[in-house]
């Protein structure tokens, strides 16, 4: 009897959800069959994939090339030319985040209010290309620091803005692979950054300029040119995209509203109100800490040429050897996000990545064998960044609305979590084993005494993300409970529209 009552409740709930979806459907779409809607949806997603993803991927390649080329410049002699110590170089690397981190939040709040976010991103890209090229003109350590701070401030517009723009086009089951594609651009940037740097090293002495100065000039100029061309191509939101027909725009907006209760162009919550709502959501703080752990590991990218240099090869071959690990990482990310999208699981793959990270960082601390160390280096980029993809996917699954809240949450998680890049830069000393760096950045060894160590950071990440899993599962139980229990959940970040449409936390 009880089972029949539960089944009846579920059936009534499903009917109510369908009615909500139909009521929210635009009048122009109600005469279309399900097959026609699916055909239109497939066509507009294909258009987005063919235009948005390539452009954003190329811009992300440029973003990472311009941000990480200081590591390649170290191999080419920038420390000697500017009379820098190891600590000063670490400061030059980390100070970029002094500009990069705080400006992400206002930038993403601004982009959530703009009708042309694509143009905003492309303009920022062109500006940082100019600033990066200006690095070639510095002749002192203090001038380098100034340029790096400004570069970080301008680059802050790109990544959280890109994640936000992608989430404005794709549903939660489509987004994972697209974020993976964006991260492929990051790894291609890292890979080609090393190859470009190797080529620029051969220009050393031309026109009286060092090879590292040519590196900044060439990469900065390329960024400006490509950014200006991208501004003519990159579409805006679905509701005002010129590459879509009027009917496709309606379908693009409706399919997002159907999933999360609202979409860009139909939101009623203001920017400031949405920003404040993010601080009332306990999930934000758990995700920030998890991202801080992942970003700590990601600091490896700032020093990867230096890590590969410990294999003992010359500067050109060292830069060439940095490419294969990043290329492998690109395939790894696509496989990771595709599996996550297909299975609907997020937590499982985060835990697998943590386990892989632990295994990867044991090797360079345990052996000086060149083959063994390089095999470990091949896995470093993918294990360092893998959890980040899934954390951003989590935000778009679990905090889709209001739009300003989603934009603020993305920026807060990336900016506050990214503070670990500042102090992690000072851990890269005492090579080739780099106990302090690999021990902390790899979530593995935290030295507590003479020879004692524990898997402290790994346990911290695993415990936190497991706590997050238990929290959202508890919230799902309340959403299936009494009206009073549902009201409690609504007070912690779930909107009335989401409750009405039967929304639940997924992936955990």
UniProtKB/TrEMBL annotation:
Sample GO molecular function, one term: transmembrane transporter activity
Gene3D superfamilies with a match to the protein in the record: MFS general substrate transporter like domains
Domain (Major facilitator superfamily (MFS) profile) ranges: 52-475
Transmembrane domains' residue ranges: 48-65, 89-111, 118-139, 145-167, 179-199, 211-234, 316-334, 346-368, 407-429, 453-471
Main location: membrane
Leader peptide range in chain numbering: none
GO cellular component, one term: membrane
InterPro entries on file: MFS (IPR011701), MFS_dom (IPR020846), MFS_trans_sf (IPR036259)
Keywords: Membrane, Transmembrane, Transmembrane helix, Transport
Membrane topology type: Multi-pass membrane protein
Coiled-coil features, chain-numbered ranges: none
Localization (cell): Membrane
Protein name: Major facilitator superfamily (MFS) profile domain-containing protein
């Amino acid at each position: 009897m009880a089972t029949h009552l539960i089944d009846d409740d579920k059936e009534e709930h499903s009917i109510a959800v369908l009615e909500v979806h139909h009521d929210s459907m635009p009048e122009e779409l109600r005469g279309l069959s399900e097959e026609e809607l699916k055909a239109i949806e497939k066509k507009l997603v294909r258009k987005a994939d063919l235009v948005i993803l390539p452009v954003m991927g190329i811009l992300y390649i440029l973003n990472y090339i311009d941000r990480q080329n200081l590591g390649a410049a170290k191999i080419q002699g920038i420390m000697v030319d500017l009379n820098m110590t190891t600590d000063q170089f670490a400061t030059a690397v980390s100070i970029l985040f002094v500009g990069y981190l705080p400006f992400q939040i206002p930038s993403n709040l601004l982009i959530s209010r703009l009708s042309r976010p694509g143009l905003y991103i492309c303009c920022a890209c062109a500006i940082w290309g100019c600033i990066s090229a200006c690095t070639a003109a510095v002749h002192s350590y203090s001038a380098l620091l100034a340029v790096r701070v400004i570069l970080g401030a301008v680059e802050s517009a790109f990544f959280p803005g890109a994640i936000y723009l992608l989430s404005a086009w794709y549903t939660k089951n489509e987004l994972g692979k697209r974020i993976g594609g964006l991260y492929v651009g990051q790894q291609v940037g890292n890979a080609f950054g090393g190859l470009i740097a190797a080529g620029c090293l051969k220009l050393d002495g031309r026109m009286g300029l060092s090879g590292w100065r040519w590196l900044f000039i060439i990469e900065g100029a390329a960024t400006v040119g490509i950014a200006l061309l991208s501004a003519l191509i990159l579409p805006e939101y679905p509701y005002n995209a010129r590459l879509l027909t009027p009917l496709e725009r309606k379908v693009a907006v409706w399919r997002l509203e159907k999933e999360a209760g609202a979409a860009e162009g139909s939101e009623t919550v203001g920017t400031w109100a949405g920003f404040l709502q993010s601080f009332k959501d306990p999930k934000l703080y758990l995700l920030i800490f998890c991202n801080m752990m992942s970003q700590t590991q990601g600091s490896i990218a700032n020093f990867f040429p230096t890590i590969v240099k410990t294999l003992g090869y010359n500067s050109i071959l060292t830069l060439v050897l940095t490419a294969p690990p990043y290329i492998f990482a690109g395939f790894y990310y696509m496989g990771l996000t595709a599996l996550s999208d297909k299975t609907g699981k997020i937590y499982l793959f985060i835990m697998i990545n943590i386990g892989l990270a632990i295994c990867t960082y044991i090797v360079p601390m345990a052996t000086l064998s060149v083959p063994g160390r390089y095999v470990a280096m091949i896995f470093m980029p993918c294990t360092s960044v893998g959890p980040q993809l899934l954390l951003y996917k989590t935000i778009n699954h679990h905090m889709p609305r209001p739009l300003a809240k989603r934009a603020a949450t993305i920026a807060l998680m990336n900016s506050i979590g990214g503070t670990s890049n500042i102090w992690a830069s000072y851990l890269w000393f005492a090579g080739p084993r780099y106990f302090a760096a690999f021990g902390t950045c790899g979530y593995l060894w935290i030295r507590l005494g003479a020879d004692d160590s524990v898997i402290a950071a790994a346990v911290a990440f695993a415990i936190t993300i497991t706590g997050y899993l238990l929290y959202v599962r508890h919230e799902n139980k309340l959403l299936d409970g009494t009206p009073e229990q549902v009201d409690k959940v609504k007070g912690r970040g779930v909107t009335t529209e989401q409750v009405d449409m039967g929304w639940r936390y997924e992936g955990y």
